[in-house]
Amino acid sequence: MNIREHLPLVEAPQSVWDAIEVAMREGEYGSARQLPRWRVAVAAAAIFLVAAGIYWLRVRQAGWIETSASASANLRIGDIGTVEMGPSTRLRVVVDRADKHRLRLERGTIYARIAAPPRMFLVDTKSGTAIDLGCEYALTMEEGGSGVLRVTKGWVAFQWKAFESLVPAGAKCRIKPVEGPDVPYFEDAAPEFVQSVEQGALTSMLDSARVRDTLTLWHLLSRVAPADRARVYDRISSLTPLPAGLSRERALALEPETLMQLREELAWKW
Amino acid sequence: MKTAKCLLLAPVALICASAVASAQTFTFEIGSPVAAQDFRFKAAPFVFRTTGCGEPQKAEISATAQGIVDSGRRSMTLKVAPSSKPGVYGVFQQWDAGRWAVILKGSCGGAQAGAIIPVGPKGFVREASKFFAHHPTEGEIDAALKAFPEGGYK
What we know:
The complex is a heterodimer. By secondary structure, chain A is α+β, with helices and mostly antiparallel strands. Chain A has helices at residues 14-29, 37-61, 191-199, 202-208, 214-221, 226-239, 248-252, 256-266, and strands at residues 64-66, 73-77, 81-85, 90-96, 101-114, 121-125, 128-141, 147-160, 163-168, 171-176, 180-181, 185-186. Chain A is elongated and about 90 Å long. In chain A, 31% of the residues are buried. By secondary structure, chain B is an alpha+beta fold. Chain B has helices at 2-24, 138-146, and strands at residues 27-31, 46-51, 60-69, 72-78, 81-82, 88-91, 99-108, 111-120, 123-124, 130-132. In chain B, the strands form two sheets. In chain B, strands 3, 4, 7, 8, 9 and 10 form a six-stranded antiparallel β-sheet that branches. A four-stranded antiparallel β-sheet of chain B has the order 1-2-6-5, with no helix packed on it. Chain B is globular and about 40 Å long. Chains A and B meet through strand 7 and strand 8 of A and strand 1 of B.
């Protein structure tokens, strides 16, 4: 990661400037003697060393990179892509290796364009980790840990403890403090479906779901109460035919292999 | 004697019917790149798989892009990239501005399958895609290109 291209401006301490000014004034109003060149060189070197030291301290030890309210910045992520930082964004480099790149996004918006095998690029937040699976996405986080993940190409997994949301291109996912990722949904879904997702209104969600919204319904299977799980599964199967060998009972029991098989099949409708 | 002939012919008819049925179900299914679960296809406009082919690894698949650019017809051959899953493939965009559709042709044993898949800035247009039990004809391709909305699919 080429951090040097994105230095924040660091000012030398005032004492250095004062010393230079005194030296220059002595030359102008004093005995009219010329300021020796070596003193100017020493002063310049001192300014550089102090500034570099402050930079080293602030970036290498703390690793934070921050943009102002009116600025943005581009980070190159090794050879695998770029991350554009929006205004008022603060992030830190956690890992910067050839085989893994990891950032921590404290607040603000990043837009990542990554061309690499899965799981080489990760972004930690207060409410979970975005795991690149080959994609382009925008991740916006508030200080309190709430945020939104929007994917424009490929797909991203967002993980928090036991919860993981798979967000493909064209879909978005809200991120909640403490709770992690919400169920993802396609941005072209009907307004009533979107509203139902945001309100957690299951019946309305099931009623207004299209085939493509099985993305959301699949995620709901493992998040609704057991008593509601059958409603969700049956709605999925009414929207699209499922493979003959897929066991309803095992899906309702949240057997991982069955859920994965169901997801792989539904993905052809997303 | 007649009864014996009927008893003999019935299973034969059943086998023939099954063979015919299998041949007729060879078809393409299209999906967004996430369906392939292969990061190499993340930039592909779509991925597709064959269904109803007894030996998917032996299916012969080809793809072309056909389009209308500045009122003129254009055509280009596309590379069909196999994924790690048998029978799952992707194609990559090689066209620029204009109205374009990807034409898929497949053969599996004696069966054929075809598809015309219009594409736009956001990838494939599922609702406008057409699937056939034969290779698409020039007339079918022409009709699909003429059916593009004014300004193309958004």
